[in-house]
Amino acid sequence: MKKMFLTLLLTVMATAGMNAQLLYKISGKGLRKPSYIIGTYHLAPVSFVDSIPGLRGALAESEQVYGEIETADMTSPENIAKMQQAMMLPEGKTLTELLTPEQMQKLNATMKELLGVDMSNPMVAQQMNKMLPQALVTQLTVIMYLKKHSGFNPTQSFDDYFQQQAVAQGKPVGGFETMDFQLQALFGSISIERQIELLMCFLNNREWEELQVDNIVEAFFAQDLNRIEAAMDEKQDNSCDATDEENELLIYGRNATWLKKMPEIMQQKSTFFAVGAAHLVGERGVLAGLRNAGYLVEGINH
Question: Could you write out the DSSP letters of every residue in the chain?
Answer without folding.
Answer: -TTTTGGGT----SPPPTT--SEEEEE-TT-SS-EEEEEE-TTSBGGGGGGSTTHHHHHHH-SEEEESS-GGGGGSHHHHHHHHHHTBPSTT--HHHHS-HHHHHHHHHHHHHHHS--TTSHHHHHHHTTB-HHHHHHHHHHHHHHHHS----TTSBHHHHHHHHHHHTT--EEESS-HHHHHIIIIISS-HHHHHHHHHHHHHTHHHHHHHHHHHHHHHHTT-HHHHHHHHH---SSTTSPPHHHHIIIIIHHHHHHHHHHHHHHHHS-EEEEEEGGGTSSTTSHHHHHHHTT-EEEE---
